[in-house]
Specification:
Elements lengths: L1 E5 L22 E3 L4 E3 L2 E3 L2 E5 L9 H10 L4 E5 L2 H4 L14 H10 L3 E5 L15 H4 L10 H18 L9 E5 L8 H14 L5 E5 L12 E6 L14 H4 L15 H7 L3 H4 L13 E5 L14 H14 L4 E7 L1 E2 L21 E2 L13 H20 L4 E2 L16 E5 L4 E7 L9 E10 L2 E12 L3 E11 L2 E6 L1 E7 L5 E6 L5 E5 L5 E3 L2 E4 L4 E5 L5 E6 L2 E6 L3 E5 L2 E5 L5 E4 L4 E4 L9 E5 L2 E4 L10 E2 L2 E2 L4 H7 L1 E5 L12 E8 L2 E6 L2 E7 L5 E4 L11 E6 L1 E2 L8 H8 L3 E2 L1 E9 L4 E2 L1
Parallel strand pairs: 1-18, 5-6, 5-12, 6-7, 7-8, 8-9, 9-10, 10-11, 11-12, 23-27
Antiparallel strand pairs: 2-3, 3-4, 13-14, 15-16, 16-17, 17-20, 18-19, 20-21, 21-24, 22-23, 24-25, 26-27, 28-29, 29-32, 30-31, 31-47, 32-33, 34-46, 35-38, 36-37, 38-43, 39-42, 39-46, 40-41, 40-43, 44-45
Helix pairs in contact: 5-6, 10-11
Length: 743
C-alpha cells in the first residue's frame, strides 16, 4: 500500500529564543524556536550523562574518549550535593570529586558540558542528592523558604569555588540545569538561577526538566524532555505502561507523564495541579536530556532492554523533530561510598543497589561497551553530518497514523523535510510486543516541486526496521532523488562520498540525478559528480568529527577519540576509508597485547540458606534485604584469580554469569560492587574494584525464592519458577582487555 505524507512547513517565521542572554552568549551558540546554532550553522547536540563522582578519576579521560567515539558532543553530569558535603561545613572536592578537573578533562576531550547543579538532583541518589543534614533541616525544601535558600546559597558557593571560574560563558560549560523534576515552583527556578549567578556560575543556556507537565518560568530555562522504553518506577505487578509505549509512535507530543511519577507521589507533588502544558516549548525547539540509553535495576522491578529497543526510541525522536538528543545514562558507574543510594527507608519509593549504578548503559560501569553503543553511534554520525539540514526540516507525520497504542500493524514513520529535500525516518519497533512486518510498502512524498514515489516497486518492511531514507538530497552537484538505504554520513573530498547503510531485509535501490533507479549491492557506486558507498552494516564503523575534518574507520575492536590522540583496544587491525580510491586502507597501530581469558572454578565457602519470599514492602514495592539478612543467607564463593589479573597492563574484567536475588563482590571482606539479578551477565573492572596481588575476592549470592513476586524479564521469571530457591554461579571469566594503543 502507499504510505503518504505531504511536507508541512514550520507554522511561522523562525523566531530567536530568549537565550542566550546577551551578557552570557558565548562559543557562537544561538537558539531559535526551531534549532540550535553554532556560528549561524544549525546542529543537533547529542549529550550523554556521565557522573564523575561515580567513576574513578583515573578513568575520566578514557570514558570521555569513549563518549566522543560514540558521537556524543556534550557530557552531562550531576554535581550531587551529598557526594560532596556529607557533613555541614566540610565540603570535599578532592580526587574523584574534583569537579573542576573533570570539566578540564571534558574540554581536553573536545566535549562541552551540561552541568546539573541541583540542589535536588535525584539520579537515584539518597534524598535526591540532599545530604542528610539538609534533608533533616526544618525548612521548606525546594521552595523559596529563606532558610532553605540559605542552605542552597552555601552549596552553590562551594560548587562555584571548586569550579574556580570554569562556569563562565566562554568555557566548556555551555548549559546549567537548575533543580530536577520540579513541577509547580516556576518562581523557585528563577530564584535558583539568580543564586547561581550570584555565586559566580553562568552559561549561555539555562535548562530545566519539563516532563510531567511541569510549570516553567517563560524564557528563563530551556525545557528539556525525556523518554524511556521501560522503567523501574512502575509497580511490580504493572505491565508495560502506556507512558513507555507512547515513545515508539510518530508524535509531536514531548511530555512524559510517567518519569518520576512515583517520586512525585512519595514527595507529595501533583503534576496535574501544577498547571503546566505538556506541549509548551516556551519558544525553544524540542529538546531532550533523558532519553533512556539503558535502565537501572530496582529491587522490586528489573527491566532489561535490548539495543534495538533503545535505538528505536531515540530514532523515533529524530523523526518526530528532536533538536537535541540527550541520553541518560551513557556511562555507568558506582557510588563513591556506601549509603548513597535511593531507598524506601529514606522516604523514596524504590530500593536501589547500594554501590552499583551500571544502568545497562552503552558504556557499562566496567568500561565495556554494550551492543547499544554501536546502534546509537550510527544515529549520531547521521546527526553530525546532516544536523545543519535537519535544523531547517520540520517533522511531518504521515497521513495514516496508528489507531492507538495497541496498533502493531500500521507502519511507524515520519518525514523530516524542508520542502526540497528530506529523510523518511522509519522506526518500526517496540519492546516486549513485536510490531507486524508491513507487506507491499511504497512511499508517496509530496514536496514543494512535486511528488516522489519510492521504491520503484513495493517492498516488505520487516519488524524491527530503523531507517533514514534520503529524498531529494544534494551531495555536491549530485542529487539523490531517493534511496532505500539509511544515510550515515558524507565524506569530504574532490568527489564527496555519501555513505549509506543497507536496510536489512530491503534491497538497496538508488535513484540519482535523472537516472533510472538501480538496485545495488554493498560497495561503491560512482555517479557523475560524487560517489555513493553502501555499507552492509555499520556495527564496526566509527565516524570521527574533529577540527581536522571527518573520517570513517572500521575495526573489530573499540576506538576512543581522546584529547591526547585516538586509541584502539581489542583489535589487531584498524582501517580508514579513503574516498579518493574508494578503498579501506590499513592504519598503522602497535602490536596488540596477547588476549587472555581464563575460566575460574569458584570454590564454595558457605552454602546458601533458605530465603523468604520477600523482605517486607513499602506500599506495593518490595524492600531489598537488610545487610544482616544478606550476610545470614547468602552463599559465599571464593574466586582465585590468575596472577596476571590484577596487573595494570592487563586491565582485566571479571565476568560473572549468575542467577539469584542479590549479589555482592567483596575484596578482602569489603563490598566493592553489588547487583540485583535480572538475567544479564555482570562485569567488574578489577583495577577499579581495588583488586591487587594477594587480594581475597569473594562472590556472595543471595537465593531468590520461587515465591518471590519481584518483576523480572520473562526468561528470568521462568528460571525463578523452575526451582524453589535460585542461587547459581555459572561461568566466571577473567578477560584481559589490554592497553589502549595509539592510532
Amino acid at each position: 500500500m502507499k504510505h503518504t505524507a505531504r511536507h508541512r512547513p514550520f507554522s511561522g517565521p523562525e523566531t530567536p529564543a530568549a537565550q542566550p542572554d546577551p551578557a552570557e552568549a558565548a562559543r557562537g551558540l544561538s537558539v531559535t524556536d526551531r534549532a540550535f546554532y553554532r556560528d549561524g550553522v544549525g546542529f543537533v547536540p547529542v549529550s550523554g550523562e556521565i557522573h564523575y563522582s561515580r567513576i574513578p578519576r583515573a578513568r575520566w579521560a578514557e570514558r570521555l574518549g569513549q563518549l566522543r567515539a560514540a558521537g556524543i558532543t556534550h557530557a552531562s553530569t550531576y554535581a550531587f550535593w551529598n557526594h560532596h558535603v556529607p557533613e555541614r561545613g566540610a565540603p570535599s572536592f578532592e580526587d574523584g570529586l574534583d569537579v573542576g578537573a573533570f570539566i578540564d578533562e571534558c574540554a581536553a576531550a573536545g566535549l562541552e558540558v551540561v552541568l546539573r547543579i541541583g540542589p535536588w538532583a535525584h539520579g537515584e541518589a539518597r534524598n535526591g542528592g540532599f545530604p542528610d543534614w539538609v534533608q533533616e533541616a526544618p525548612v521548606g525544601h525546594r521552595t523559596d523558604d529563606p532558610a532553605y535558600l540559605e542552605l542552597v546559597r552555601g552549596w552553590f558557593g562551594q560548587l562555584a569555588t571548586a569550579l574556580a571560574g570554569r562556569a563562565r560563558p566562554g568555557g566548556a560549560i555551555i548549559a546549567i540545569q537548575l533543580e530536577n523534576e520540579l513541577y509547580d515552583q516556576p518562581g523557585h527556578l528563577v530564584t535558583l538561577k539568580r543564586l547561581a549567578r550570584e555565586a559566580g556560575m553562568a552559561a549561555p543556556l539555562w535548562t530545566a526538566t519539563a516532563w510531567g507537565s511541569a510549570q516553567l518560568p517563560d524564557g528563563e530555562v530551556v525545557p528539556l524532555f525525556s523518554g524511556y522504553a521501560d522503567g523501574f518506577w512502575a509497580d511490580p505487578a504493572q505491565g508495560w505502561d502506556a507512558s513507555f509505549r507512547a515513545h515508539f509512535f510518530p508524535s509531536h507530543e514531548w511530555d512524559d507523564p510517567g518519569v518520576g511519577a512515583d517520586v512525585r507521589a512519595a514527595l507529595g507533588t501533583d503534576a496535574v495541579a501544577a498547571g503546566g502544558s505538556p506541549t509548551d516549548l516556551h519558544g525553544f525547539p524540542p529538546a531532550t536530556c533523558e532519553l533512556g540509553s539503558g535502565m537501572a535495576t530496582a529491587y522490586h522491578r528489573r527491566p532489561v532492554l535490548t539495543a534495538l529497543d533503545i535505538a528505536a526510541l531515540a530514532h523515533n525522536k529524530i523523526g518526530n523533530g528532536s533538536a537535541w538528543q540527550g541520553f541518560f545514562m551513557f556511562a555507568g558507574g558506582r557510588n563513591p561510598r556506601p549509603g548513597l543510594q535511593e531507598t524506601i527507608a529514606t522516604g523514596y519509593p524504590n530500593d536501589m543497589p547500594e554501590l552499583g549504578y551500571d544502568f545497562h548503559a552503552p558504556i557499562g560501569q566496567s568500561g565495556d561497551l554494550t551492543d547499544t553503543a554501536a546502534a546509537l553511534r550510527e544515529q549520531h554520525a547521521f546527526l553530525a553530518a546532516f544536523g545543519g539540514m535537519l535544523s531547517q526540516m520540520p517533522s511531518t507525520l504521515p497521513d495514516r497514523l496508528p489507531a492507538g497504542l495497541d496498533d502493531t500493524g500500521t507502519l511507524r514513520w515520519a518525514l523530516r523535510s524542508d520542502g526540497d529535500a528530506g529523510f523518511i525516518v522509519i522506526s518500526h519497533h517496540q519492546p516486549y510486543e513485536p510490531v507486524d512486518g508491513v507487506a507491499g510498502a511504497q512511499f508517496e512524498i509530496t514536496l514543494d516541486d512535486g511528488v516522489v514515489t519510492l521504491p520503484s516497486q513495493p517492498v516488505d518492511i520487516p519488524s524491527g526496521t530503523l531507517a533514514r531514507w534520503p529524498v531529494g538530497l544534494r551531495i555536491g552537484d549530485m542529487r539523490v532523488r531517493w534511496a532505500t538505504a539509511s544515510a550515515l554520513t558524507v565524506l569530504p573530498g574532490s568527489r564527496p562520498t555519501l555513505v549509506l547503510v543497507a536496510t536489512a531485509g530491503v534491497g538497496t535501490e538508488l535513484a540519482l540525478d535523472d537516472r533510472e533507479p538501480v538496485t545495488v549491492a554493498p560497495g561503491v557506486f560512482a555517479a557523475d559528480a560524487a560517489d555513493v558507498l553502501v555499507l552492509e552494516s555499520s556495527a564496526s564503523v566509527w565516524v570521527q568529527e574533529s577540527v581536522a575534518g571527518r573520517r570513517m574507520l572500521r575495526t573489530g575492536g573499540e576506538l576512543a577519540f581522546a584529547g591526547t590522540g585516538d586509541v584502539v583496544r581489542g583489535a589487531a587491525t584498524v582501517e580508514e576509508y579513503d574516498p579518493a580510491s574508494g578503498t579501506w586502507q590499513p592504519v598503522q597501530i602497535d602490536a596488540p597485547d596477547l588476549p587472555a581469558t581464563e575460566i575460574l572454578a569458584p570454590h564454595i565457602v558457605r552454602e546458601a540458606e533458605e530465603a523468604p519470599a520477600d523482605y517486607g514492602f513499602g506500599g506495593v514495592r518490595h524492600r531489598a534485604p537488610s545487610t544482616e539478612a544478606f550476610d545470614a543467607l547468602a552463599a559465599v564463593h571464593r574466586l582465585d584469580l590468575p596472577d596476571w589479573a590484577p596487573e595494570e597492563h592487563a586491565d582485566a574484567v571479571l565476568e560473572i554469569d549468575w542467577a539469584g536475588d542479590v549479589a555482592q563482590l567483596r575484596v578482602d571482606g569489603v563490598p566493592v560492587d553489588d547487583r540485583f539479578w535480572d538475567g544479564t551477565s555482570w562485569s567488574i573492572s578489577l583495577i577499579d574494584a581495588g583488586v591487587a596481588a594477594g587480594s581475597v575476592v569473594t562472590l556472595h549470592v543471595l537465593p531468590l525464592s520461587a515465591r518471590s513476586t519481584v518483576w523480572l524479564p520473562s526468561a528470568s521469571q521462568a528460571r525463578r519458577s523452575a526451582t524453589d530457591a535460585l542461587a547459581e554461579v555459572g561461568e566466571v571469566r577473567v578477560r584481559a582487555r589490554g592497553r589502549w594503543r595509539p592510532l
